[in-house]
Amino acid sequence: MITPVLLCGGSGTRLWPLSRKSYPKQFVPLLGDKTLFQASAERLSGTDYNAPLILTNSDFRFIVTEQLAEMGMDPGAILIEPEGRNTAPAVLAAAMWLEKTDPDGLMLVAPSDHVVPNTDAFREAVQAGVASAKSGQLVTFGIKPTHGETGYGYLELSEAPAKVDLSTMPLTRFVEKPDQARADEMVGAGNFLWNAGIFLFSVRAILDAFKAHAPDLMTPVQAAVDKGKPDLGFLRLDPEAWRSVEDISIDYAVMERASNLSVVPFAKGWSDLGGWDAVLRESVRDERGVATSGPAVALDCDDTLLRSEDDGLEVVGIGLRNIIAIAMPDAVLIADSRRAQDVKLAVAALKTKKARQATAFPKDHRPWGWFESLVIGDRFQVKRIVVHPGAALSLQSHHHRSEHWIVVEGTAKVTVNEDVKLISENQSVYIPLGAVHRMENPGKVPMVLIEVQTGTYLGEDDIIRYEDVYARS
Questions:
Q1: Which residue, among 214, 271, 319, has the nearest Cα to 31 in the 3D structure?
Q2: Residue 472 has pLDDT above 90, yes or no
Q3: 56 class by beta-carbon count within 10 Å (0-12 exposed, 13-18 middle, 19+ buried)
Q4: What is the pTM of this model?
Q5: What's the CA dihedral at 42, 234, 62, 275 to 10 degrees?
Q6: Are residues 300 and 185 part of one domain?
Q7: Is the peptide bond before 17 cis (omega within 30 degrees of 0)?
Q8: What does the alpha-carbon distance between residue 128 and residue 169 come to, in Å, rounded to a whole number?
Q9: What φ, ψ does residue 160 adopt, rounded to 5°?
């Protein structure tokens, strides 16, 4: 059996404004109805796979469980990284965790934000690498390139693969992301593959590799795992030990130094969706190369992506060529598709001017549901709040604001100081400044309410929590 190890802590700024630090691309349905994370979990499931081991951060832990629950899947374990330390420490922590129960087992490490349209072909490629992984090889998966891409690293083989997906091949070396001329040259040579960042190896083999090539990581990561604290079904790696871990990728730490490397070539479709140009390539397009999503209309356009993420916002393009237009309720991106990799520069510019849109998603996802701000003034704010069935907000109070709740769908169980009552649709309740209060959804359908806040300060940090079923501080 193979244990999938899904890495899902990244931010994906090149797909801004749909992907942001608070809600990155792996949790968004970029192509189809499933999110990239859900599609990855489904792809690495079945009779040959154990339940997935997931590494993420504290902000995403409930998003992970919610999206898996929507698919009827349970994780094997969820390890919470106190802060991002790149892929090498994450993979090492996963291996040390699995060593406790399955030291000779295989682990398949994969990012959770890739697109692989042909699931069966990918599983066959994984099976092609199993024998080598069991023999102690570190197996990576190389994608047969379709064009000279500067956003990927490359894998050099000793010769061009004659067959694909049938067996492993020796890896000559890793190649850093090239410029365009070098990328075109490597594609023409035929013996270079894109580095997908997907790996298959035994727990014992990867631990031995870390001991040989990155020994400085062993002690602090082991301490982070051993001193980790269980938290509502998660394991929080020890923050103090994790803080001393080097920030380094598994390529730099291990793969580029190891000699027991093999590659499985794969040519049945793959993308890491590293930019909006990649989304356009993977989308269903018309005869003029135009893809639309949501309420969007293209007139006399070519090679263009028009996407609206708001049902009430129509995007119309006229006479556009090589354009990407992405409309969100709070931000709009318009770019030449050939400059798609520069979107990260726009995010940096927004951060410099301290724009909230640089990192924060319009919908703020919480373990109990989500909320979005509809109107914001100097001393008031109007929110829409959606609470999942059976979920409850923390018992809390505020120093600087009062609140008025109006239920518009479902039923709310509301606590205000000593008073507890049910509020149905079209009913409301007032929460005075300083009152200890809680909102719960006792029903079996989502509960929706409109919240009107008034006060001198309306920030989300004006919360004193007394009880919280999600153990948030």
A1: 271
A2: no
A3: buried
A4: 0.86
A5: -60
A6: no
A7: yes
A8: 11
A9: -65, 135
Q: 403, 407, 394, 395: which is closest to 446 by C-alpha?
A: 407
Q: Phi and psi (nearest 5°) for 94?
A: -65, -45
Residue-number span of the structural domain to which 165 is assigned: 2-266
User: Is residue 420 domain-shared with residue 308, that is, in the same domain?
Assistant: no
Tens digit of each residue's pLDDT (9 = 90 or more) over 67-98: 998 889 888 899 999 998 999 999 999 999 99
Contacts (Cβ under 8 Å, ≥6 apart) of 57: 9, 80, 81, 82, 83, 84
Residue 357 lies in a domain: no
Rounded Cα distance, 212 and 223, in Å: 19
Average pLDDT, the chain: 92
Q: Which residue has the tokens 């599983």?
A: 123
pLDDT tens column, 379-434: 999 999 999 999 999 999 999 999 999 999 999 999 999 999 999 999 999 999 99
CA-closest candidate to residue 186, choices 208, 228, 156: 156
Q: Which of 142-151, 247-256, 285-294, 418-427 has the lowest mean pLDDT?
A: 142-151
Q: Is residue 174 included in any domain, yes or no? A: yes
Number of Cβ within 10 Å of residue 71's Cβ equals: 15
Amino acid at 85: R
Domain match, 298 and 243 both: no
Give the pair of three-digit tokens for residue 402. Answer: 């009062």
Considering just the CA atoms, what is the radius of gyration of the chain in Å? Answer: 24
- State which of 266, 293, 327 marks the end of a domain: 266
The CATH number that applies at residue 210 is 3.90.550.10
Q: Is residue 358 part of a domain?
A: no
DSSP string covering 28-79, please? Answer: S-SSSSS-HHHHHHHHT-STTBPPPEEEEEGGGHHHHHHHHHHTT---SEEE
- Chain segment 25-45, per-residue pLDDT in tens: 999 888 888 999 999 999 999
pLDDT (0 to 100) of residue 161: 77
Q: Positive or negative CA dihedral for 156, 158, 160, 164?
A: negative
Question: Whole-angstrom Cα distance, residue 443 to residue 204?
Answer: 48
Domain count, the chain: 3
For residue 148, give both structure tokens.
């000279």
- Identify the residue whose tokens are 């007394």: 466
